[in-house]
Amino acid sequence: HKFSKEGSKQALLNLTQDPEK
């Protein structure tokens, strides 16, 4: 499903742009 593609992108962005972690 498309969540696999967009979800992975969002996950990477979230992990990369998470200043509290």
UniProtKB/TrEMBL annotation:
Biased composition (Polar residues): 11-21
Region Disordered, annotated ranges: 1-21
Domain of life: Eukaryota
Name of the protein in its database record: Uncharacterized protein
Gene source species: Nymphaea colorata (pocket water lily)
